[in-house]
Write a structure and sequence with these properties.
The protein has one helix and seven strands. By secondary structure, the chain is mainly beta. It has one domain. Strand 1 and strand 2 form a beta hairpin. The longest helix has 17 residues.
């Protein structure tokens, strides 16, 4: 049996470089969106497990108080060979040790600052995972803005295979 020749319909050989000069308002192509969603969801679904991989650097920061909550903070420096929002990110953990907030700057979107809140944890094969993700703008002093809601992600029917 002979394979049919394949035709490349669309390609983005250097996806990260294709965002050069972009701002938050710059429209994305379909392939740029696929690149962003792929690395973003990989980041959200694999941390903090990825921090045990070679090349990650972590350090604890001063605690943070927000809306009556007292959170411990972890500064994470990502290795350059992994695609993610920004090299430096900050994670906030509640009294139960669960991730509550994740701050980063979306480098491919002109460095747009984000405060990413996670909640509604479920147990999947003994691992607690957040099912709600709400992402808001973040000010230079680290405060999140209540509006606009930039991204909303709800996960369900989660399984490990």
């Amino acid at each position: 049996m002979r394979a049919e020749p394949r035709t490349v319909v669309e390609a983005l050989d250097r996806p990260r470089a294709s965002f050069a000069g972009h701002t938050f308002e710059t429209p994305w192509s379909t392939l740029q969106l696929a690149y962003f969603v792929g690395y973003a969801m990989w980041t959200y679904l694999t941390q903090p497990f990825t921090f045990a991989m070679p090349g990650f650097q972590t350090s604890e920061l001063e605690p943070w108080d927000e809306a009556g909550q007292h959170w411990r903070r972890l500064r994470v420096i990502w290795p350059s060979h992994l695609a993610t929002h920004s090299t430096e990110q900050t994670l906030y953990f509640d009294d139960d040790g669960l991730l509550a907030r994740h701050d980063y700057d979306v480098e491919i979107g002109g460095g747009t600052s984000a405060a990413h809140y996670v909640s509604d944890y479920v147990d999947v094969a003994g691992i607690r995972l957040p099912t709600k993700h709400r992402i808001f703008p973040r000010t230079p002093d680290g405060q999140s803005l209540a509006e606009p809601l930039v991204v909303s992600i709800d996960l369900s029917e989660i399984e490990f295979t």
